[in-house]
Amino acid sequence: MRKKIQLFLAKTYMRVFLLSIFLLAIFGLTTLGLVAFPKLIRLTERDLIAVTAYGANQSQLTADILGETRQLKLQITDQKIPAPVFQSQSVLAMDVETGQILFEENIHERLAPASTTKIMTGIIATNYFRPADVLTVYPIDNVGGSNMGLKIGEKLSFRSLLYGMLLNSGNDAAFTIASNFPGGLPAFVAAMNSKVSEMKLADTHFDNPAGFDSDNHFSSAYDLAIIAKLAVENPQLAKVVATKETFVSAWDKSYLHSLKNLNELLSADGVLGIKTGSTEKAGENFVGLVERSEHKVITVVLNSRDRFGETKRLMDWVYANYKWEKIYQ
């Protein structure tokens, strides 16, 4: 009887041992599969992509069997269509995505920017103020030129002042924003010029937030294009400059201000903004943003006699002359 029990236990131990070996083998194979299978899938996918791309277009391989990938890059091709003749002193067109200059005439010449100055004013202001912040109109803010009709002592939200500055080109709104900045007007102008230095703009200097003419207040078409590019990356500013008209009121509803965008091209043929400007010294200025066929272009005309007409001709020529396509490199 004792021998039978020993024999039974021996067989049981052997079965348990064999079962353990079997389970360990299954576990090992499973682990190996989990590690190797995704690599095999990726390799198979690369082979398939390479073979498919080779059959379709050898120049557009997206990957190869070694795992080396090729990047998709935007290429802009000049089709050599003769450009219009412009009377503006400075003219520029720039592709937003790549920064490529598509047209240029005197783009680094220092000229009076007039109210295109307010693009930088908007950048500095939105970096500090929140839309609901309440600002006060001080006597210093009662300046001449274009305005939104502010009253001394009136209180408005920063959002309302931003619309008044960028739609009506309100000098009073620009000065109110600056005078409510910590340190007041001098500190705000210093912040504008600090941003100029940070952006490495060689041909720009500001001495007021509205764009009044001064020997110490200048910019260039190229610098304004770079400033505009930064501005339209800000959703708040992009929304404001794309607005045709609106109403804003004082914080206590005591005053109502009707605002209308001075940009006559807005919403026509893909125009999205951004800012007009004019003074006796500057002539007619316009910094524009247009999008057609999913490609955005910034335009600048300075010291023009027909800023909107010349901008429209520039935009039309750019989209006729250039071809955008994405290629693999």
Automatic annotation (TrEMBL):
Pfam families for this protein: Peptidase_S11
Residues of the active site: 115, 118, 169
Binding site for substrate: 275
GO molecular function terms listed in the Swiss-Prot or TrEMBL record: serine-type D-Ala-D-Ala carboxypeptidase activity
Alphabetical GO biological process terms: cell wall organization; peptidoglycan biosynthetic process; proteolysis; regulation of cell shape
Transmembrane segments: 12-37
Domain annotation Peptidase S11 D-alanyl-D-alanine carboxypeptidase A N-terminal: ranges: 83-304
InterPro entries: Beta-lactam/transpept-like, Peptidase_S11, Peptidase_S11_N
Entry keywords, A to Z: Cell shape, Cell wall biogenesis/degradation, Hydrolase, Membrane, Peptidoglycan synthesis, Signal, Transmembrane, Transmembrane helix
Membership in a protein family: Belongs to the peptidase S11 family.
This protein's name: Peptidase S11 D-alanyl-D-alanine carboxypeptidase A N-terminal domain-containing protein
